[in-house]
Amino acid sequence: MSTIVLLTVTGLGLGALYFLVASGLSLIYGLMGVLNFAHGSFLTLGAFAGWEFARRAGADNWWTFLGSLLVGAVVGALFAAFTEFVLIRRLYERHIEQVLVTVGLSLASVALFDGIWGTDTIHISGPAWFRETTGILGAQIANDRFVAIIAAVIVLLGLVFFLKRTRYGMIIRAGVESRSMVTALGIDVRKAFTLVFAIGGAAAGLGGVLASHYFQYVSPLLGGSLLIFAFIVTVIGGLGSLTGAAIASVVVALLQQFANFYLNGTGDFVVVVALALVLLFRPSGLLGRKS
Amino acid sequence: MSQQPQPHPEAANPAATGGPAPATAQTAAQSTTQATALHPAAPQPGHARPVLEIAGLTAHIAGQQVVEDVSFSVPATGITALLGRNGVGKTSTIKAVIGLISRTGSVTLDGERIDKEPTFKIIRRGVGYVPEDREVFSKLTVAENLRLAERDASPRRQLVEELFPDLLKRASQMAGTLSGGQQQMVSLARALLNENKLLLIDEPTKGLAPKIVQEVAETLERAAETVPILLVEQNLQVVRQLAAGAVVLSGGKVVHTTDSALGFLDNEDLTQRLLGVHADAGHGEEADRNGAQK
Q1: pTM for the predicted model, two decimal places
Q2: Is residue A13 part of a domain?
Q3: What does the pLDDT look like over B218-229, one tens digit per residue?
Q4: Using beta carbons and an 8 Å cutoff, which residues of A are at the interface with B?
Q5: Has residue A63 been placed in a domain?
Q6: What ipTM did this prediction achieve?
Q7: Helix, strand, coil share (%) of chain B residues, nearest 5
């Protein structure tokens, strides 16, 4: 029983990280049709920025941690908005070029991060409480898992509130259905594009800081390793669906954890099989729009 | 068989032939100078400047030419019908006017060139667009669909509530769950919420029950009291009832313009050949059978 609880909570923690990356990916694809391969770079830069802040701020206390979350989110948002404004905006409707430019950016940024911070992984530590464990039904669970889960839930609720209750949220939901009709109502949808990139970048940057605590290191490859699974999550959840991304994040991470434990470390394989099954039997994803 | 219809000599400006457009002396004086510069066939004094002037409009979708060198204008009052067989480029012409598809040529709205502007700016100049197939946002509520369309500081909610009382009752319903007729009301309401210089309305009665067709026609008639409309419509009865002038496209080109839709539509041969329908036909059933699918 305690193993199941441990695997479940650890899986939820990992799912939280997937969601923080996948939510942005899904919104960006849903609204703009852009497959953003540079999204992992937003996460990595957010993680490094958070770590730089934390080590300068000194003590590994809660305020430093919260500050690093904020710094990670802001840096992620700025990098993403910059990417949209400088690179993507010129390439709307040119999907091949968009893929090329985002793949190029992700490669270039990894090289840049290598140059600045080196290729070695940097071990980090957060507030002492993170390394302690909490007992739930006999399982001893590292506390940073709870932080990741709580942060992802807050981000999910914040995004839902933003999408449902604000005018820009309404524009984004409408734009996911028909971008051209939004412009045909006299709305400058490009502002919504930049905003969606910024929001996606903020979630990814936040995810970067949390991921660095979850894995206890930062490295230039941190974003890329999470991005692969975030893409799988996005496809399984349905491109453009935030709720789909949330559900699929949890499903994928739990599958991965349980398969790794019970099926001799085949977690990644099982996830790919799940992806294949979804593509075969429900190509638009769990909650995606029919195309 | 009568002779092949030729482009009207004053195709660029149906109003010039003495169209239905009454005007104030002031706008007529302005328009005469403006339009003379653009077209040899300038409106005579006593007629308002056309609200929309299209000259040499050519448009492409995915490299394919869908509109070829189209020129016509829309008078500043009343409903002008844009007619032609299915697949002839009517919808593309409307989309090209507001820049939803790439285009070249000159498009002038109320005396100002708009052919280089992005869609949202053209709309903000005062164009209401009701697309073919309604294009309501199905996962937004009726109220959200309407709120999204509000451009003016004081949108005309009261008018919309009066015209479409049903929508008020369904404000919190997802637009995707509405019937076709109700979705058309949402689409029309989105355009009527704002003060516009021109409405572009694309096949508003398509696929609707006769009773709803009549409701839509009445709504358009009422809207046309305050704003000129360029209307794509397959239902010739509706065209007869509403239109004060017509432009006919064939093969992506203007082949006929008239300031009297009725006279033109009574010509059995013309309607048969250009529109693929009999003069007394209802909702273009034959056009659907004969014409290319869009």
Answers
A1: 0.80
A2: no
A3: 999 999 999 999
A4: 167, 170-171, 173-174, 177-178, 180-189
A5: yes
A6: 0.78
A7: 35, 20, 40
